[in-house]
Amino acid sequence: MAKPFFRLQKFLRRTQFLLFFLTAAYLMTGSLLLLQRARVALPQGPRAPGPLQALPVAAVALGVGLLDSRALHGPRVSPELLLGVDVLGSPPARPRSRPGTRWLRGRSSELRQLRRRWFHHLMGDPQGPPALGPEAARPAISSRGTYVGCFSDDGQERTLKGAVFYDLRKMTVPHCQDACAERSYVYAGLEAGAECYCGNRLPAMSVGPEECNHECKGEKGSACGGAGRLSVYRVEELQPASRKRRTVTYRGCFKLPENVTHAFPDSLTQANVTVEMCSGFCSQKEFPLAVLRGWQCYCAYPTPQFSLRDAVDGSLCGQEPEAQRLAEYCEVYQTPVQDTRCTDRRFLPTKSKVFVALSSFPGAGNTWARHLIEHATGFYTGSYYFDGTLYNKGFKGEKDHWRSRRTICVKTHESGRREIEMFDSAILLIRNPYRSLVAEFNRKCAGHLGYAADRNWKSKEWPDFVNSYASWWSSHVLDWLRYGKRLLVVHYEELRHSLVPTLRKMVGFLNVSVSEERLLCVENNKEGSFRRHGRRPHDPEPFTPEMKDLINGYIRTVDKALRDHNWAGLPREYVPR
Questions:
Q1: 217 contacts 167 by C-beta, under 8 angstroms
Q2: Which of 45, 200, 214, 261 is deepest in the core (most CB within 10 A)?
Q3: Is the dihedral of CA 310, 314, 315, 320 positive or negative?
Q4: Facing residues of 266 across strands?
Q5: Do strands 425-430 and 487-491 pair parallel, antiparallel, or not at all (unpaired)?
Q6: 296-306: string of b/e by CB count within 10 Å (b at 16+)?
Q7: Contact at 8 Å (CB) between 414 and 384?
Q8: Are strands 425-430 and 356-360 parallel, antiparallel or unpaired?
Q9: pLDDT value at position 366?
Q10: pTM to 2 decimal places
């Protein structure tokens, strides 16, 4: 009798231990999932006006209060890397619209977005891309360029100083070669499996080929450099499917500076010199400007002594070479080579004590402003959201947590008291609502690069979009004026027309000192990669009289609010159309 009882007691003890183990495992698994969800569930997007957004404009003007805002779903993360993209911000979707419109997302879509971000989070593991074995570290067979070797890239200055871009998912050797060939660079270098650098000059010393042991993200078996190592190819020609080389751009006729030798670091004197010869010579030397004066070719950067702001009549440069030389005028051309004096960027060496926002309504040029700020200050900007396309274009702050304080400022489209008071100060970027609405509608319907089709403008989508977003443009500015602790108001149009003076004010607001040469470098690279390319469809005026009345009312409201807060009102071109 004792023996069966002992067996039963032993079985119950085992069962108890098993139940305890399963319960503990279940609780631990659930906790890990909740923690991970909290970790990757980044803010899903800016907030839009709440139930008060449908109030008449007069109600807002009479001080009924600032429009509430509610959370919106996050921006789509595009897996594509597109050179020459017009990347605006990653604006949100508006939940107020009727079911079935393009910018609404269902719960399943949100979960897919969450899983996608978790995947990208895993892909961004600091351990880096998978390493290749010594036997696999070989140049790509499909490339047309000649493999030069493996070079160090961990010094204070980069080995290849030209154009740079990233692709965390699809980087290949031909992709990098085509990008560099398009810009007339001689060498293409790949680093850490996902980074592409271009240049025309190489250091004298290389390192062992075994040190370039990282695999290309989009080309298994091909070596794409390593940690601080570049797999370098000499680019011979463009691939058949790629775009044409960028051409030389005429900048105008200018008077020569007083000290030509000091202003122009390199030169070439040759009989019958042509624009192509001069541009090729300066591109090889990695200068962004080619200057022609008679038979003389000079290579230069924009400087305070030669800023390219005071162009003269082009006929003064249309004389015979000898007469042109004596007349002290020169023709200036922009080479395909990038001005590299302002391309170095890094995270802040210590955490910022002042938490600064770069706030704007979607479609107002926030990403372009980030491009200017990063190149002017030399520090990365962060984002309240995450956009893989922007990260691929070199915005490394996209993957940094927006509260890390390692970036010079943080992009946001948020409004509402809680979201605004998190920041110590803010640059408030405002753009003409007519242009902002068109830009954002184009992005929502056709992505960062495209234009909305005629059917989109003629459908119910467009009036619904305007009715929903126009009030948000107003409430965004009003909320920041009311709750912002320390503001610098910048108008997009002012930044376009007077870039250097306006950018100087922005940099000063960020408490960063920059040289005039660096600001001129930013001006020379002002477009970045964020303009839409291709033919703009011939569109009639998309705004109906009713839409104009609505938008003009909001414009007058914002204009009055700016003046009440001792700011200059909106530019005259805003009101009314």
A1: yes
A2: 214
A3: positive
A4: 299
A5: parallel
A6: bbbbbbbbeeb
A7: yes
A8: parallel
A9: 93
A10: 0.72
